Amino acid sequence: MKVVKLDPRGGRKGANTDRGRALVAGGAGFLGSHLCERLLHDGYEVVVLDNFHTGKRYNLNGMHRDPFFTCIKHDIVDALPMDLAVDEIYNLACPASPPHYQADPIHTFKTSVLGSINLLELARRHNAKIFQASTSEIYGDPLVHPQPESYFGNVNTHGPRSCYDEGKRSAETLFFDYSRTYGIDVRVARIFNTYGRRMQPDDGRVVSNFIVQALRGEDITVYGSGMQTRSFCYVDDLIEGFIRLMNAPTSPAHPVNLGNPVEFTIMELAELVIDYTNSRSRIVHRPLPVDDPKQRKPDISFARQHLDWEPKISLREGLAHTTQYFDALLGSRRPVKEA
Ligand code: NAD
Ligand code: UDP
Predict the structure, then answer these.
(1) Which of 10, 40, 260, 298 has the lowest tally of Cβ within 10 angstroms?
(2) Which stretches make up the NAD-dependent epimerase/dehydratase domain (predicted)?
(3) Which residue is closest in CA terms to ligand 2's atom 3?
(4) Which of 248, 242, 255, 238 is nearest to 306 (CA)?
């Protein structure tokens, strides 16, 4: 499987090739695997670091055979296994779904803080450009709507979501302090709810939960009244945003919102999913989790103006693709609507 000889001592960038070398921490996850595919397609040599907490080896199927692809099992909380010469680093390593990041909250926090430091030190040693997958969660339960990058947020420091929210906020601090202190080129994306192919059926986030429940004919679990809102971005649009942010000629001096600005209530999402899956599932209500944000919608003016980026795929189209993916995965054989 591992054909490319990595140069563990560093010094030779893109060893054995004149390709740029990109390190993707969290590359076996939902977003990471799509990013790896895109980077290989764009001519990079790709090295994944992943502890497989929520990522899966089968997300990388097809890539394993690529001579310019290597996957190393490693937890970024620990010192890196080798001093790898890299040109670009993408830090996507962190469980993203509330049930997963709350399962071991201290490790989640360490992943954002110690993991970021380990990767930032690598970037410093090799003068590599480094990207951080930050999140709309840094706005907490926002009091400003929609959320521009200039909004500082409204976050509980000690609730069950804090390990993720405050970990990601600390990581943003680290990225910009490394930039100011050592002159590292950092790119920080604040990602809003993104969905699509390669989400795990047991991921626990709302889009995968609803589609899986609908395909299995189970009750659709709306937490609270369902009047809370989210803005859902399809994965292909988001990955294009990552690449544009990373390749922008100069580093924006602040984090950049990436997400779809079209806002839906969770109840509207449930109804759309039932429609797309032709499901007979019933909607049932469950208690709203603690600190669940009431509304969320990105202001993407900066990305529009400076990256010439905005999402192209509507929720209806993205749901059709995602439903087809889960339908094949679960073998549910229900008639699913085309996009
Ligand atoms: P995911 O859970 O599918 O992927 C996370 C990946 O990181 C997995 O492969 C997991 O095994 C790996 N990982 C976790 N902790 C690690 C550690 N300590 N060391 C090494 N690998 C580790 O989630 P995703 O949706 O693909 O999210 C990717 C990144 O994007 C995360 O950092 C997440 O916080 C961020 N993000 C995602 C969304 C979204 O809607 N998908 C929104 C905001 C931010
Ligand atoms: N949600 C829901 N049912 C589910 C899973 C989630 O109603 O089965 C709600 C959740 O309470 C939140 C929204 O959907 O209001 C988005 O949840 P998700 O975990 O996908 O993302 P986040 O809360 O991190 O934005």
Answers:
(1) 10
(2) 22-259
(3) 222
(4) 248
256: its two tokens: 């950049």
| pTM of the predicted structure, to 2 decimals | 0.95
- Express each pLDDT in 276-310 by its tens digit: 999 999 999 999 999 999 999 999 999 999 999 99
Q: Is the CB of 218 inside a 6 Å radius of any atom of ligand 2?
A: no
241 touches 304 (CB < 8 A):
no
Side chain identity at residue 323, one-letter code = T
Q: Provide the pLDDT for residue 338.
A: 53
Task: Give the amino acid at 173.
Answer: T
* Type and span of the H or E element at 275: helix 266-277
Q: Dmax of the chain from CA atoms?
A: 60
Minimum CA distance residue for ligand 1 atom 41: 194
- The residues annotated with a catalytic role in the active site are 164
> For residues 40 and 31, what is the distance between their CA atoms, to the nearest angstrom?
15
DSSP letter at 28 equals: T
CB 128 within 8 A of CB 88: yes
Task: Say what the alpha-carbon torsion angle 253, 258, 263, 264 is, to the nearest 10 degrees.
Answer: -140
User: Relative to the alpha carbon of 58, which ligand is closest?
Assistant: 1
- pLDDT above 80 for 334: no
Residues having CB within 6 Å of any atom of ligand 1? 25-26, 28-32, 49-55, 75-77, 92-96, 111, 115, 133, 135, 191, 193-194
Any bridge partners for residue 257, and if so which? 190
Query: Separation of 242 CA from ligand 2 center, angstroms?
Result: 24
Tell me which of 23, 38, 54, 234 to substitute to probe ligand 1's pocket, judged by most ligand atoms within 8 Å of the beta carbon.
Answer: 54
